[in-house]
Specification:
The complex is a heterodimer. By secondary structure, chain A is α+β, with helices and mostly antiparallel strands. In chain A, 31% of the residues lie in helices and 38% in strands. Chain B is built from two helices and five strands; from the N terminus they run E-H-E-H-E-E-E.
Chain lengths: 140, 79
């Protein structure tokens, strides 16, 4: 039974809870990405971030990505949670947990999923600095 | 016919709008409809834009229908 899930939340993301929720009996490894807010990007200090999403489309795009991943990698369940709203330095912005019978497929699928999420899922990040703010357009 | 147009992030800031209703002629194709929207908000031309119709990325040849949900946004930056 597939237990995929896709969530957008303004609350703190519990990475361990996301990871445990994807595990079925036939799996032996879960690879979990914990993406969090970086304080320094190329030497410039970020004070905090604001994420905004086109929520229904973002959830659909996440589901599509998982369907594609399953066609390419030997994986079972995938859980994706993305934070929206204001995030402080160090807070988790995105969590992707991939459960698979064997670890290699889980690592590969997790890397592919975050790369594609950054390219296709309609969510935007605003970086707020001491001296201004900017919506990031596309991957940096 | 009337459709909703949504803006997010940078496109919401540029237009000062998050959601507007606009009138379009019947049977207009998506690429034409989005070109018309951008003409009405020329400040959007400073950005690389993506377009969605009813929460799917557009190809361009789709026929827009009354009540459709269009969205104009910049290249995404989640993660």
């Amino acid at each position: 039974m597939k237990k995929d899930f896709f969530e957008l939340t303004t609350e703190t993301i519990d990475v361990g809870e996301i990871a445990r929720r994807v595990v079925p009996a036939n799996c032996g490894a879960t690879v979990t990405l914990d993406g969090y807010v970086r304080q320094f990007t190329s030497g410039r200090e970020t004070l905090y971030l604001v994420y905004e999403g086109y929520e229904p489309m973002a959830l659909k795009e996440m589901e599509k990505l998982v369907g594609k991943a399953r066609g390419q990698f030997e994986i079972e369940n995938v859980g994706i949670a993305h934070r929206l709203g204001k995030l402080e330095i160090g807070e988790t912005s995105v969590c992707i947990a991939v459960a698979a019978p064997h670890r290699r497929a889980a690592f590969e699928a997790c890397e592919w999923l975050i790369k594609e999420l950054k390219r296709t899922v309609p969510i935007w990040k605003k970086e707020v600095y001491r001296d201004g703010e900017i919506w990031i357009e596309g991957e940096k | 016919m009337k459709v909703q147009v949504l803006f997010f992030g940078a496109t919401a800031d540029e237009t000062g709008e998050r959601e507007i209703e606009i009138s379009l002629e019947e049977n207009v194709k998506a690429n034409r409809a989005f070109a018309e929207i951008v003409e009405n908000f020329p400040q959007l031309k400073n950005h690389k834009l993506l377009f969605a119709l009813n929460q799917e990325y557009v190809g361009g040849d789709e026929i827009i229908k009354d009540g459709d949900e269009l969205a104009v946004f910049t290249a995404v930056s989640g993660g």
